[in-house]
Every structure is written in structure tokens, then in C-alpha cells.
């Protein structure tokens, strides 16, 4: 599955293109796709390493 950072970067790129275009239909399409990617990034797992669960011995 794609990571959060990748999806967020792709959404940011689409937003930059949407701001740069003069065609409102293209801008609307890019904004729609950026919103979809943003929503997916919120659902994506965080790829940062997690500490393993360790059982502590009883003292």
C-alpha cells in the first residue's frame, strides 16, 4: 500500500498544477484528484518504524 507521505506529496503537486493552469475545468479536475489523494493519505498506514512489543519479566 502507498504511504502517507507519497500521497500527500502527489496531492501537493496536483494543487500546484491546478494553481498554474488557466483552464477552470482542468483546475477542477486536478483539485478533485488532489482531494481523493488527500483522503487516501489519511487512511494509509504510517510507514514509520514501530517499536516491537516486548513482555517485561515479572520482578
TrEMBL record:
It comes from the Bacteria. Residues 36-59 are annotated as: Disordered. This is Uncharacterized protein. The lineage of its organism: Bacteria, Pseudomonadati, Pseudomonadota, Alphaproteobacteria, Hyphomicrobiales.
